[in-house]
Amino acid sequence: MSYRMRQIAAAFVLLTLYGGVGSAHAQRLDSNTVPSHYDLAFDVDLAQARFSGVETIAVDLKAPSRRIVLHALDLQFQDVTIEAQGQTQRASTTLDGPTETAALVTARPIPAGPARIHVRFTGILNDKLRGFYLSKANNRRYAVTQLESTDARRAFPCFDEPAYKATFSVSLTIDAADTAIANGQLLWDAPGPGAGRHTLVFTETAKMSSYLVAMAIGDFQCVSGQADATPIRICATPDKHELGQVALDAAKQILTFYNRYYSVKYPFGKLDVVAVPDFAAGAMENTGAIFYREVDLLADSRTASVASMKRIWEVLAHEMAHQWFGDLVTMRWWDDLWLNEGFATWMEKRPMIALKPEWKVELDEVGDTHVAMSLDSLASTRSIHTTVETPAEIEGSFDRIAYEKGASVMRMIEGYVGADVFRTGVNAYLEKHAYGNATSEDFWRAMTAASGKPVDRILPTFVNQPGVPLVNVAQSCSGGTTTLTLVTQRFLTSTAAPIPRNPLWQLPICVKTPTGATTCQVVSDQRATISLPASSCAPWAFINAGATGYYRTAYAPEILRAMNADIAARFTDAERLTLVGDEWALVSLGTHSIAEYMTLVSGFVKERASGVLDEIAGRLAHAHAYLTTTASREAFERRVRQQFGSLLFDELTFGAAPDEDDDRRALRATVIELVGVTGNDPSVSTTAQIALERSMRGGTPLDATAADAIVRVAAITGDAGLWGRLLDASKSATSPAEQYRDLYALPMFRDPALVDRGLNLALTPELRSQDTASFLGRFLRNSTARPRAWAFIKQHWDAILPKISISLGDVRLVESLGAFCDPAARDDVRSFFAAHQLPAATRALDQTLERINNCIALKDRQSPALTAWLLAQDR
């Protein structure tokens, strides 16, 4: 998330809530009371789904006060006393639901200085997958925490803001047959109190924010190892814990890499990574105890696809990077969340680039940048740094601006200052703010000091204002000197009213010429020129060398024609991906025709980098779905089959060769879906169904990396028998990846009766709440199922809402409605959510409606041009 709630000073002694109790926007605490340590003792009753707690908070009061306000939600206070200067007095408690706070009031003023707050409280292990909640698997119960961003207050009374860092000592009294995992290392384990119970006591944590507290209780089992003397455990339910070996091997390598990259070695003593049966987020970076959704952590090394292996490495690297960026150094307030999430998203690729070069992760980075720019090109986008006031606003800002744009901006700065200098700046920042809090300004000051370059001028223009720069490039030559003329404007695809002015960016532009020489400079003006020193005129100049820039480019036609001759020999995979991505963006903008894009794609027939072809495949799928008509669709499909069919059938085939590298396996998966779905090739569909049925009967197993694509292609034309077998397979799968592969194939079916059967699963306990939004979203992306799915969602909204109101599920579902592309659906979506408001999804709804409008405009502009181009190819 990325927003800042304005802190308002409290009046002396009595007033501690700005705006008064009851204001929905007044949820920041005053600064008079500062916690330093929590003693937390929980007694957890899984059978009754409840817990009780005894808590002591060591605090310091800056001024005398009769009133201390802290956060609490869905908790019952049994007894509160406050001890200071040798005297103890009972405090009355007033709970305020709208502000999620509790006011503790004493008869006499509590003196300034140290004090201790003693609280006895009780709570319910809820079914909301947030706070301290109940998870179920294998006919038994588990208790788990998920406290980011503002849900620690659901587990224990606390000062639930990231700036209030403290140490935590936790003990857990639980059933004797169960174990527990927490942030600290297990200090001792003793029987009782009471029969059939035992108490586990954990070491005191490092200083950290309340949202990073972690507790997991159940019959978890672990596989163990270590890296640089740090113990590492990968834990899961007993039936799945052996599937943690892939993650254990990855975690050891990643931790070793990070200990070499950072000047501060891993600071938290041990690292536990826990797969939780019900977990709303992908993973959560609790200090020393990372919690995970099972599918993102567990895999069978014998059958795991390249995509699954990459996903495990990526999410592990992301959450482990947070142990430094987020846990060791934490943003002061949620408006600077990008310091956590943007950095972790950037950092997650570094171990894989170094240790798994065959995965070509640098292309994933470019893909992340394109995803961010797609969102950031909307009029309804936001800046990385955005003011926020409520928990709903905080939750709603965990988006691609915080993650992918934040990471892309980091990567651009690294490309500009150099990798070694960037690392020096990172470490200076971490060393200065370790165990404390920091702001965006702190980061760019550190990077400026390390590099001697104007990072403190560049970063604010990307962090504090929204939007994507578009750089228009013209080129001339005189006297052997090549001159580039650059004109920058905001790239805005929206059909909404134009912005009143073009913002200015400080753009680090790195120019590459055919000689391979690269020069970088910061462009500060809307119109600028760059002279390239050379003895002869360069035929072309590419202004995004290394593909690290966060901007779109529009080259004059003659430059593009000159580049085409060298695109295979002189451009990296990442640079080619950037070129083709920018060309599609210009089609969306309306300045280039889809005909130009289709001509460009024709030149990629020999493309063998899976990441590049995957980008092209995605755009062709979009054109097929939205820009073809009844008259042109068959010609478009035939064009796709002609261009890519031979690559599939003659070169790749459906089965992997023993000596194939991972990228070639990924290429096969991309082409199967491209030719089978977008190309509507019946032979691919038939081959996929035969291969799938054979593997399900115990015959030749599917190639793990191509399996997802094969299952999806087979499902599109599948019958009720296949639907049932896939559902059964999803229930019996031993690997989470296989379970979700089969489950998420169900929304691909086109038979209306099977669409209805799939939709009705969302109303049953068979579909976990954590999966509901993703499952329904897949129906909305299926053009055949989309109208039925939307009608179903509206009809059953009251039953669906509780299942999606967890960890951005409502936001994700609203985003999926952006697959509509017609005015009637747009107006219906707007009307429905006017009557059924989702506070966390307010911005997502604006963006969804804008995307639908953009799609309508794109279809109106480009559909005739695509039809004309296809007719010209057939002449």
Structure description:
The chain has an eight-stranded mixed β-sheet, with no helix packed on it. The protein is of the alpha+beta class and 875 residues long. Helices cover 41% and strands 22% of the residues. Helix 15 packs parallel to helix 17 (662-678). It is built from 28 helices and 28 strands. A hairpin with a 4-residue loop joins strand 1 and strand 2.
Helix count from the secondary structure assignment = 28
Largest sheet: 8 strands, mixed
Briefly note the structural class of the backbone. alpha+beta
Q: Distance N terminus to C terminus? A: 53 Å
The proportion of residues in beta strands is: 15-25%
Widest sheet: strand order? 5-4-8-2-1-11-14-13
Can I get a quick summary?
The chain is an alpha+beta fold and 875 residues long.
Can you give keywords for this protein?
22% strand, disordered N terminus, alpha+beta, five-stranded mixed β-sheet, eight-stranded mixed β-sheet, 875 residues, 28 helices, 28 strands
Topology:
Elements lengths: L32 E13 L4 E12 L3 E7 L3 E10 L2 E4 L1 E5 L4 E10 L2 E12 L6 E7 L2 E7 L20 E9 L3 E4 L3 E6 L5 E6 L12 E4 L2 E7 L2 E7 L8 H17 L9 E6 L6 E2 L4 E5 L12 H17 L7 E2 L6 H10 L1 H7 L5 H16 L14 H6 L4 H17 L1 H15 L3 E2 L1 H12 L3 H9 L4 E11 L2 E11 L15 E6 L5 E6 L3 E6 L19 E4 L1 H8 L2 H4 L2 H17 L4 H9 L7 H17 L6 H20 L9 H17 L3 H15 L7 H13 L3 H13 L3 H8 L8 H10 L7 H12 L5 H10 L1 H8 L4 H8 L6 H13 L6 H33 L1
Parallel strand pairs: 1-11, 17-18, 18-20, 21-22, 23-28
Antiparallel strand pairs: 1-2, 2-8, 3-7, 4-5, 4-8, 6-7, 9-10, 10-15, 11-14, 12-15, 13-14, 16-17, 19-20, 23-24, 24-27, 25-26
